[in-house]
Specification:
The chain is α/β, with parallel strands linked by helices. It has 15 helices and 16 strands. Helices cover 36% and strands 16% of the residues. It is globular, with a radius of gyration of 22 Å.
Length: 435
């Protein structure tokens, strides 16, 4: 066996100092790791033997690995660390692999590694390399010839600037995703990639500093991927159209929706308020869209501009309200994301809650959180060097360990815990269920 891919488990939610219910950091959801699947699929298509495991804990990994090494001799392990929530587990897993099989090469990648970069080499002495790009070709090349440099991969002793190592993969070359690389794959929610990356640069998002070009999958590739999924999962499964921001390209979106019109399937996606949704909204429900997640975040024009969410706050808020109602009126379940922000005042938070209250009958769920500062985002830079360097990031033992920091809003008026309590009370008052 050539490569063991590890979907690193998150730490227990009880160890975390902030609420993650319903968010991308929610560790209770059973879902595929898309990056591992596409990288594993690519390596397999190049003739390698690969295996993916998705343990639910570090102890679970140790148990599975102990059994696997009785059967297989792995040449390399590739770990996907998708957030700081999985970081501590990854460090322990790396140490355990080297303890059991000292000759295995280990490479780590995923969004969190792209954020912290070579810092992980200081925090773990056993890791051999990191991948800072889309890993399909990079991981394969590093496996084949680890002794030479490869764009997108930094080895422990390489003296290379991280910013020089951006690399993207031609998604049209990817074969049908081999979902069967996951054991009991049918227990997971299937996904179809609609696009990669995001052209918007909201300063709290990891896309704000990583200059990965936005690419929308072709209609031909989209159809081919769906046909592959239909063979494996059928049309009764609930699908996710995977995109950081669905529906940016209206022409391609229309063509894709027309393909889905007679398929009688169900799916969901995430969208930005300023996407050109008017051009295809009438096709979405007939094409199977059952739920949309809209990143409203706030209705305070001053804060929206600070976020780089929009420069026209008034139009943005009007558009958000119209979008919520238009999707609801077409029978699509609407979920709205709301967050606090540095320097947000209580009055501005209240304006957002009033907006939700005013549109309550059109909204099925809200996802609320105090903002997290991710490493190597523009927002994080502003805490270290810029407008907020005198710190409203709450650093605790566990948040320091995982490089994610909850952010106070306006410290003199509202603490982090106050924010969570306000959100909790509001959800109860408005009779919102947790997602």
């Amino acid at each position: 066996m050539d490569i063991l891919f590890v979907d690193v488990p998150c730490v227990s939610s009880g160890m975390i100092d902030f609420d993650v219910d319903g968010s991308l950091l929610d560790v209770k959801r059973k879902c595929f790791n898309p990056g591992l699947l596409t990288i594993g699929t690519w390596c397999e298509s190049q003739g390698l033997q690969v295996k993916i495991i998705a343990p639910e804990s570090v102890l679970g990994f140790k148990r599975v690995f102990s059994e696997l090494k009785k059967i297989h001799k792995f040449q390399m392990a590739a770990l996907s660390i998708m957030s700081g929530m999985a970081y501590l587990a990854a460090l322990e897993i790396i140490d355990y692999i080297k303890q059991e099989e000292k000759d295995i090469r280990i490479i780590a990648g995923g969004w969190h590694i792209r954020c912290i970069g070579k810092q992980i080499f200081k925090e773990n002495t056993k890791l051999d390399a990191i991948c800072l790009c889309e890993g399909e070709e990079a991981i394969y090349e590093y496996y084949v010839s680890p002794e030479i440099k490869h764009t997108g991969v930094i080895r422990r002793d390489d003296n290379i600037a991280e910013e020089d190592y951006c690399r993207i993969f031609d998604v049209e070359k990817l074969p049908d995703v081999d979902f069967c690389l996951y054991e009991n794959y049918y227990e997971y929610r299937p996904f179809i990639e609609e696009s990669r990356s995001c052209p918007r640069k909201c300063i709290h998002c990891v896309h704000s500093k990583h200059s990965v070009r936005y690419r929308c999958f072709s209609v031909t590739k989209f159809i081919k991927d769906f046909e592959n999924c239909f063979d494996l999962f059928g049309k009764e499964s609930y699908y996710t159209l995977l995109a950081a921001n669905f529906g940016i390209n209206p022409e391609l979106t229309v063509a894709k929706m027309r393909y889905l019109l007679d398929k009688n399937i169900s799916w969901s996606a995430e969208m930005h308020v300023e996407n050109p949704w008017e051009k295809y909204i009438d096709l979405l429900a007939p094409a199977g869209m059952k739920s949309v997640s809209i990143g409203v975040e706030t209705v305070a024009p001053r804060v929206l501009k600070m976020m780089r969410k929009t420069n026209d706050g008034k139009n943005y808020v009007e558009r958000a309200q119209t979008m919520i109602r238009e999707f609801h009126d077409r029978g699509i379940s609407v979920k709205v994301n709301v967050m606090t922000y540095p320097d947000l005042t209580f009055q501005e938070l209240q304006e957002t809650l009033d907006f939700i209250k005013y549109n309550r009958k059109y909204i099925d769920y809200i996802n609320t959180s105090a903002i997290l500062s991710f490493p190597d985002t523009v927002l994080d830079d502003m805490f270290e060097h810029g407008a907020w360097k005198h710190s409203w990031k709450m650093k605790t033992e566990s948040t320091n360990s995982i490089h994610l920091f909850p952010v106070e809003s306006e410290l003199s008026r509202m603490s982090y815990n106050n924010v969570l309590q306000i959100f909790s009370n509001f959800k109860d008052e408005m009779n919102f269920e947790k997602v």
